[in-house]
């Protein structure tokens, strides 16, 4: 898209074509907002905000924000197409890494505070409890996406192979919702909301793919 010029000859930036500095500020704003839940957890422990079972609270919170991060990541492409704001794609990596960050905290909380690094017990848990199996699979699949989220590895892997690899996020989103759904057992309101959100975001992609074909 051509950038129009104002009377002084300088580029005239709009929301469809913002300045690089504006996009960078949006990235930092996204990071700042994404770290607020962590700040709440850190401050919440001494202030007694984490309830009677802090470990469960931290586990649920980090899992929830992993899902939120995945939802934001998957919403960027539809928003870019609907709003015709190509620059939104430059926020996708940041959103994805925030999702991975909270997934790491979620996994660490389970391994460290819930199971105290008892690896035989963790292995038995992964094998015997389906919701743990599904959650573990989603976390493992996230790792290569995070590792390859830099320009050097994109060049090494190749754009086509990189895109194919990062489409794994669709499966990860499904596994994450199933993990949450099987965890809560009774009140499925929240996992159902995430299921609807992800179904909408993935359904739009399927619709566009069918139309393109």
User: Portion of residues in helices?
Assistant: over 70%
Our measurement of the CA-to-CA distance between the termini, rounded to an integer number of angstroms, reads 25 Å
Low-confidence stretches: none
The proportion of strand residues reads under 5%
Following the backbone from N to C, one meets helices and strands in this order, namely HHHHHHHHH
- Determine the mean pLDDT: 91
Descriptive key words:
9 helices; about 210 residues; mainly alpha
Describe what you observe in this structure:
Helix 2 packs antiparallel against helix 3, helix 2 runs antiparallel to helix 8 and helix 8 runs antiparallel to helix 9. 77% of the residues lie in helices and 0% in strands. The two termini are 25 Å apart. The chain has 213 residues and is mainly alpha-helical. The longest helix is centred in the N-terminal third of the chain and has 30 residues. The model has no long low-confidence stretch (mean pLDDT 91). The protein contains nine helices and no strands. It has one domain.
């Amino acid at each position: 898209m051509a950038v129009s010029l104002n009377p002084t000859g300088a580029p005239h930036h709009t929301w469809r074509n913002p300045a690089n500095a504006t996009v960078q500020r949006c990235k930092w704003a996204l990071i700042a907002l994404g770290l607020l839940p962590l700040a709440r957890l850190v401050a919440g422990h001494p202030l007694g905000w984490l309830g009677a079972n802090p470990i469960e609270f931290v586990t649920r919170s980090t899992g929830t924000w992993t899902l939120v991060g995945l939802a934001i990541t998957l919403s960027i492409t539809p928003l870019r197409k609907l709003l015709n704001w190509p620059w939104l794609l430059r926020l996708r990596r940041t959103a994805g890494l925030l999702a991975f960050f909270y997934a790491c905290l979620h996994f660490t909380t389970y391994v460290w505070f819930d199971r105290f690094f008892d690896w035989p017990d963790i292995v038995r848990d992964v094998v015997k409890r389906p919701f743990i199996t599904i959650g573990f699979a989603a976390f493992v699949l996230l790792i290569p996406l995070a590792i390859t989220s830099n320009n050097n590895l994109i060049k090494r892997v190749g754009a086509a192979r990189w895109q194919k690899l990062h489409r794994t996020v669709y499966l990860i989103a499904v596994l994450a919702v199933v993990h949450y759904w099987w965890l809560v057992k009774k009140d499925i309101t929240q996992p159902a909301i995430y299921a609807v959100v992800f179904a909408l975001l993935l359904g739009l992609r399927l619709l566009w793919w069918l139309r393109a074909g």
